[in-house]
Design goal:
With 513 residues, the protein is α/β, with parallel strands linked by helices. The strands form 6 sheets. The protein has a 7-stranded mixed β-sheet with strand order 2-1-9-8-7-10-11, sandwiched between helices. The protein has a 7-stranded mixed β-sheet with strand order 14-15-16-13-12-18-19, with helices on both faces. The protein has a 3-stranded antiparallel β-sheet with strand order 5-6-23, with no helix packed on it. The protein has 15 helices and 23 strands. Helix content is 37%, strand content 20%. It is globular and about 80 Å long. The mean pLDDT is 96. The chain binds 2-aminohexanedioic acid (UN1). The site of 2-aminohexanedioic acid (UN1) has 11 residues, from loops.
């Protein structure tokens, strides 16, 4: 379908039944558990992977540890050169990899290609970063002493990625980690391992061409057990996990118990505030992209719109005009804007959330149906839903990973809207649409949005890689991608050097022996 055989050939995926890869070597599982991956778009089989065992995991960790000893001695700008080559390979493979992302995950082709572009962008960023892993220098209180700090590679970085951005979020972590001198072990979502296999093939070319040892970039396909093992493993000083808050709490607890580092990027409950001073034309576009893009399966998806009563009816009417005619269908078909949900469990969660929120008093305005008939045989396609609710409803407080948009009315000033926005357990992304400077500056101030991302006249999703990405509260507090997010992938060392003939002590302490 849609030339998928050709795509798989172009990507060189031969490792059917692979369970792990250390970059050059591939292995099946040491037992016979396997998983067949079907496209959420049409239910067809794309490939079969094996599920790694504890022994496979140990082998991969040991290979990674050995590779670290070499990789950390390669100068950072030379590591950047390898990442530059990876970026170039991704440019070469953008089309087939984007198609596979779209087919395996279900996001529309435009977004599949956008995801690969996000990988290319982070490669470029990491190349520049490889010459900018800066620490501070400071003045010592002691004469003829010098103080500075430096950043050293950390070691093995575990990356647990989610199905919704099967490759981009890995690349945010792996490309930064790579220039920092770390080696990575990637456990992709069991729902989307094939894009991981494809990326691993692309990496292998670069490793081979540069005669690098295996073990710098590793892939391990497995279930939650492998993730749990990684979290508990003291040989993995940093575990970066993207996914649900439920998963992240477990990983965070286990990593925390051994005093390791966890970088968590978990659930969001992202809101857009529309004040009476909003430019509604651009606001509506942002809301629709944010709410139905990726079929509501981004962690930055717009889940709530908090609308001033003066414009509430107008906004509702405009959304009600767009929602019923959204083109829903095969994500590889040009013109489709809404693809399928990842699987039927996700459809069940969508349906249940809508039933529950209505039981609480929510008013379903449009959508909510599971589509049937030609093109929808797989049972994974739904009509995005709009529901009028109150913010305190139990379901509104939850993140349902599906295209449900909650409309919430407010009548006071921007402070009231901010309080509603912040009145959830999650704190990832947020936005305000207003042309009134007092409102927008209040929103961005310390009394404003409590999220990791706060935008003005831009929606909640679709962040650029240059900024730090992540959020507060139950979102987990981690920051990935741009800005100085790289620091978490390194260990900081403070160095004091004495070039005098004396040994003065700090704080003026006298200690004569
Ligand atoms: C995610 O959903 O886990 O800002 C990541 C965005 C994308 C990344 C989303 N650049 O929506």
């Amino acid at each position: 379908p849609h030339g998928m055989q050709q795509v798989l050939r172009e990507l060189g995926i031969q490792a059917e039944n692979a369970a792990w890869s250390t970059g050059l070597a591939w292995g099946g599982a040491s037992n016979s558990r396997s998983k067949t991956i079907h496209s959420p778009a049409d239910g067809r089989r794309i490939g079969t992977v094996a599920l790694a065992t504890t022994e496979d995991y140990s082998h991969v960790v040991e290979t990674a540890q050995a590779a670290f000893k070499t990789w950390r001695t390669v100068p950072a700008p030379k590591r950047g050169e390898i990442v530059r080559q990876i970026g170039n390979k991704l440019r070469e493979y953008k089309e087939p990899l984007g198609k596979l992302v779209s087919y395996e995950m279900g996001k529309i082709l435009q977004e599949g290609l956008g995801e690969v572009q996000e990988m290319i962008d982070i490669c470029d960023f990491a190349v520049g970063l490889s010459r900018q892993l800066h620490g501070f220098t400071m003045h010592s209180e002691r004469p003829a002493h010098r103080m500075y700090e430096q950043y050293h590679p950390l070691g093995v970085v575990g990356i647990i990625s989610a199905f919704n951005f099967p490759v981009a979020v890995w690349s945010w972590n792996a490309m930064l980690a790579a220039v920092c001198g770390d080696v990575c072990i990637w456990k992709p979502s069991e729902k989307t391992p094939l894009t991981g296999v494809a990326v691993q093939h692309i990496l292998a070319d670069v490793l081979r061409e540069n005669e690098l040892p295996e073990g710098i970039f590793n892939l391990i396909i497995g279930d939650a057990e492998i993730g749990a093992q990684m979290a508990a493993d003291p040989r993995v000083p940093l575990v970066s996990a993207t996914g649900s808050t439920r998963m992240g709490k477990k990983v965070g607890e286990v990593v925390g118990a051994r005093l390791g580092r966890a970088l968590l990027e978990l659930g969001g409950n992202n809101a857009i505030i529309l004040t009476e001073h909003a430019d509604l034309d651009i606001a509506i576009r942002a809301i629709v992209f944010g709410a139905v893009g990726t079929a509501g399966q981004r962690c930055t998806t717009t889940r709530r719109v908090i609308i001033h009563e003066a414009v509430f009816e107008d906004v509702k009417a405009r959304l009600l005009k767009i929602y019923p005619s959204l083109p829903i269908g095969n994500p590889l078909q040009e013109g489709t804007l809404v693809g399928p949900l990842i699987d039927q469990d996700a459809v069940a969660a969508f349906t249940k959330a809508l039933a529950d929120v209505q039981a609480e008093g929510g008013k379903l305005l449009t959508g909510g149906e599971v589509l049937t008939g030609a093109g929808y045989e797989n049972g994974t396609y739904v009509k995005p839903a709009l529901v009028e609710v109150e913010n305190h409803y139990h379901m509104v407080q939850e993140e349902t990973f599906a295209p449900i948009l909650y409309l919430i009315k407010y009548s006071g000033g921007v402070e009231e809207a901010i309080e509603l926005q912040n009145g959830v357990r999650q704190g990832l992304s947020s936005a305000i649409f207003s042309l009134n400077m007092r409102e927008t500056e209040t929103y961005l101030s310390h009394t404003g949005s409590d999220c990791g991302i706060a935008n003005v006249n831009i929606g909640t999703s679709g962040a650029e890689i240059g900024g730090a990405f992540g959020g507060e509260k139950e979102t987990g507090g981690g920051r990935e991608s741009g800005s100085d997010a790289w620091r978490v992938y390194m260990r900081r060392q403070t160095n004091t050097i004495n070039y005098s003939t004396q040994l003065p002590l700090a704080q003026g302490i006298k200690f004569d022996v």
